[in-house]
Design a protein that fits this description.
single chain; alpha/beta; 4-stranded antiparallel beta sheet; elongated
Length: 157
């Protein structure tokens, strides 16, 4: 329900705003521009920051990472944008692992759908042998409940 209305602004459609309680909507939309239909218009200017295909294979092969509690891959994306190839990810949430698998940015990554208590060194042996990192970083995400599965304190109509 968010669309790019032109190359310089986003439009949050009024229908999406109907899902938010009036009190929260007032605080959120205060000071924002609205069009004649009640949609919120967010202007932006391009700063030149891009995530593009050139970054996919532009990793420092000496420094690689294994990711634990990967979730949707936020730390993993940051590591790869910094040039560190993430060679494996692990999470016990099926939706999170499927999200990572569907992301071409992690096509080279071995994804484990397991609880950490069910993991062993043998799970990583082939990954480490195949990639042979000179230096290895261990990434660990904080436990976070998923927004659709969590009461984040905002009433929903």
């Amino acid at each position: 329900m968010i669309e790019v209305s032109n190359k310089k602004s986003y439009k949050i459609k009024k229908e999406a705003l109907n899902l938010i309680q009036e009190e929260q909507l007032k605080g959120f939309s205060e000071g924002l521009q609205k069009d004649k239909d009640g949609n919120i218009k967010l202007s932006f200017s391009h700063k030149g920051y891009l995530c593009n295909d050139d970054l996919i294979n532009n990793f420092n092969q000496d420094v690689q990472a294994i990711s634990f509690f990967s979730g949707g891959g936020g730390l993993d994306i940051g590591a790869q944008l910094a040039g560190v190839k993430v060679i494996s990810s692990m999470d016990f949430d099926k939706d999170s692992v499927e999200t990572l698998k569907a992301n071409n940015y992690f096509a080279h990554t071995k994804h484990f759908y397991k609880d950490i208590s069910d993991m062993s060194a043998n799970d990583y042996k082939a990954v480490l042998h195949e990639n042979n990192p000179k230096k290895l970083i261990l990434l660990g995400g904080l436990p976070v409940n998923h927004f659709p599965k969590q009461d984040i304190g905002l009433p929903i109509k």
